[in-house]
Amino acid sequence: MGVIIRPLVTEKMNNITEKLNNKFGFIVRPDANKIEIRKEVEQKYNVNVVSVNTIRYNGKSKSRYTRKGLIKGRTDAYKKAIVTLKEGETIDFYSNI
Predict the structure, then answer these.
(1) Contact assessment for residue 25 and residue 93, using Cβ atoms and an 8 Å cutoff
(2) For residue 5, what are the CA distances in angstroms to 18, 70, 86?
(3) What does the DSSP 8-state code read for residue 82?
(4) Looking at residue 18, which CATH number applies to its domain?
(5) Is residue 29 part of a domain?
(6) Domain span including residue 33
(7) Residue 27: its pLDDT value, please?
(8) Is residue 59 one of the residues assigned to a domain?
(9) Rounded to whole angstroms, what are the CA distances from 44 to 48, 57, 61, 67, 91?
(10) pTM of the model
(11) Spatial contact of 25 and 13, defined as CB atoms under 8 Å apart
């Protein structure tokens, strides 16, 4: 099973990628380390990785009011990796669409 769950394609990450052409985001497994993330990105996308920064996010408690009363739930915790590539290299997430 791979370390990378999916690429991170959000408005905030797109703004970072536009300003700095060599930074890309991924949602990764919570137990993954930077070395595993680097190896998988290099193998999967055929690029050279300069650095990997990771961020852990805790799940948030959510609640909403409905006709049947208060519904409580929780969002999942996840880990995000920001990968910096070698100058001049890029990853195209939209090539398969």
Answers:
(1) no
(2) 23, 32, 22
(3) E
(4) 3.30.70.330
(5) yes
(6) 4-85
(7) 95
(8) yes
(9) 11, 25, 35, 48, 10
(10) 0.83
(11) yes
Strand partners, 73: 62
* Domain-embedded: residue 94: no
The pLDDT profile of the chain, 97 residues, written as one tens digit per residue, is: 689 999 999 999 989 888 888 899 999 999 999 999 999 999 999 999 999 999 999 999 999 999 999 999 999 999 999 999 999 888 887 776 6
Beta strands (DSSP E) in the chain are 4-7, 23-28, 49-57, 61-66, 69-74, 78-85
**94's tokens:** 């939209």
**Identity at 20, one-letter amino acid code:** L
CB contact burial 18-30 (16+ within 10 A = b; e otherwise): eeeebbbbbebee
CA geometry: angle 33, 10, 40, nearest 5 deg: 30
